Amino acid sequence: MLIELNKEIMQSLTKTESEIIKFINDNEERMSELSIVDIAFDTYSSPATVSRAIRKCGVNGFNELRYRITSKNNDDEIHNMGEIINKSFVEARQVVDRISITNVLNIINCLANSKRIYVLARGLTEYVGEEFTLKLQLLGCNAIFIDDPNIMQIKTKSLRSDEVVFIFSLNGETSELIESAKNTNLCGAKVITCCCSENSPLLEHSHYNLIGFKHNHVSIKKFEVSSRVSLFMMSRIIIDYMAANIELEK
């Protein structure tokens, strides 16, 4: 039996939820091939109901259930896919657990009161910075993205106190980003940092920061291409909250 049931759990389940758990246990061999949408379709329910039923049984969501299945599957392809999917789940969950709501609100308030926002990033993290900048612009913010190391170091030497420098960095160790943060402080402007290292030198020069989670898994080891899921998630949280507030003000 994939999901163990006891009297207490059974009493907590609704009729639909009981049918969902029965379906899962009766189709254990097929579960590695099914998504939460497939299960909802076959049980005439919804993905939210499937997720709720699973959690009531002490399983921390559908991904954990799928990982249990794939981890003991004899098919190497299915097993490996389960491991890969779980890495993304772990990374996303760690980000949510680590983020301080107070820090997020302080950052949003700082952005809202700034005259201009300079978004800095280097390497593959530039994709995060570019998307974040575009969304800030769509929300009506005066935002500029800079990825050139020389330009960012020169520009941050002549900032106004009502301007903000927002830095995205995976490890927080890029020398030109650190130098730009130092320059910004000397100008009296504020620095906001999103990175995935609690030991980043950038944090010493930041007024506000969000620290995500960097999984030790590297997809393309030859080039040390690490996931930017954490950075994308943190940028999304900020943008989504700002957008929600704008809608409320209309």
- β-sheet strand percentage: 5-15%
The residue ranges in which pLDDT falls below 50 over 5 or more consecutive positions are: none
Do you know the CATH topology of the largest domain? Answer: Rossmann fold
CATH class of the largest domain: Alpha Beta
* Strand neighbour order, sheet with most strands: 2-1-3-4-5
**What is the overall shape?**
elongated
Structural class: alpha/beta
Protein name: MurR/RpiR family transcriptional regulator
Domain HTH rpiR-type: 1-76
InterPro entries: Homeodomain-like_sf (IPR009057), HTH_RpiR (IPR000281), RpiR-like (IPR047640), RpiR-like_SIS (IPR035472), SIS_dom (IPR001347), SIS_dom_sf (IPR046348), WH-like_DNA-bd_sf (IPR036388)
Pfam families: HTH_6 (PF01418), SIS (PF01380)
Task: Explain what this protein looks like in three dimensions.
- This protein is α/β, with parallel strands linked by helices and 250 residues long.
- It folds into 2 domains: 7-73, Winged helix-like DNA-binding domain superfamily/Winged helix DNA-binding domain (Arc Repressor Mutant, subunit A), CATH 1.10.10; 98-249, Rossmann fold (3-Layer(aba) Sandwich), CATH 3.40.50.10490.
- Helices cover 54% and strands 12% of the residues.
- The chain is built from 11 helices and 7 strands.
- The strands form 2 sheets. A 5-stranded parallel beta sheet has the order 2-1-3-4-5, with helices on both faces.
- The model has no long low-confidence stretch (mean pLDDT 86).
- InterPro entries: Homeodomain-like_sf (IPR009057), HTH_RpiR (IPR000281), RpiR-like (IPR047640), RpiR-like_SIS (IPR035472), SIS_dom (IPR001347), SIS_dom_sf (IPR046348), WH-like_DNA-bd_sf (IPR036388).
- Residues 107-249 form the SIS domain.
- Pfam families: HTH_6, SIS.
- Keywords: DNA-binding, Transcription, Transcription regulation.
- Residues 1-76 form the HTH rpiR-type domain.
